[in-house]
Amino acid sequence: ESAAEEPRVLCIIQDTTNSKTVNERVTLNLPASTPLKRLFEDVASKVGYVNGTFDLMWGNGDNVTDTTPIDQNSDKTILDAGFEPGKKNFLHLTDKDGEQPHIMPEESGTTDDSAQDRFIGPLPREGSVGCTNDYVSQSYSYSSVLSKSETGYVGLVNQAMTCYLNSLLQTLFMTPEFRNALYKWEFEESEEDPVTSIPYQLQRLFVLLQTSKKRAI
């Protein structure tokens, strides 16, 4: 079968391990043939926790409906485990054996780059342009509410699988030669519609990245 034709399974994970993360949702859109143990690896990489230090349970979006943890060592596919393609599959990330999940060390070099490319924010090591140690520490979690005043940088809201584009835009913004050249460019409204002008919209985006007080735009 072509990979493009394989059913996809949307997993929505709620981190219930503490009050700061309980309202957070992270999503994974996985091939139906994904093994359960790979699901745990993907969730761990997505939220920045050490794999094996948390449990996943079925949920209905608000409350846990099945108190039996999903088997994280199983080679069974998520489809065979009861996940439904084309529907929202709600999961709860919970403490394991009464202990909170361990936050992945920022210097972890065990994760290969190809795995990192699959995931959409907000890991501590993603978006941390410049001096990472300025605000990333062992106590940092993906759900920490950070404002620009604390980080010095403004993020980009993920608009469903746009992590690759957001990374490129942030890279271009952090290149002074490119940013300054773009600022010098002048838009002629008589010649082009501002809505469809890529350099004009990029100018506006860069200005917001530089001046906004929001955490992300």
UniProtKB/TrEMBL annotation:
Protein name: UBP47 hydrolase
Pfam family, one: Ubiquitin_USP47_N
Keywords, ordered alphabetically: Hydrolase
PROSITE patterns according to UniProt: USP_1 (PS00972), USP_3 (PS50235)
Mitochondrion among keywords: no
GO CC annotations on file: cytosol; nucleus
Location of the region described as Disordered in the Swiss-Prot/TrEMBL record: 95-115
Domain USP: 154-217
Gene: Usp47
Keyword Phosphoprotein listed: no
InterPro entries: Papain-like_cys_pep_sf (IPR038765), Peptidase_C19 (IPR050164), Peptidase_C19_UCH (IPR001394), USP (IPR028889), USP_CS (IPR018200)
GO MF annotation terms: cysteine-type deubiquitinase activity
Biological process according to GO: protein deubiquitination
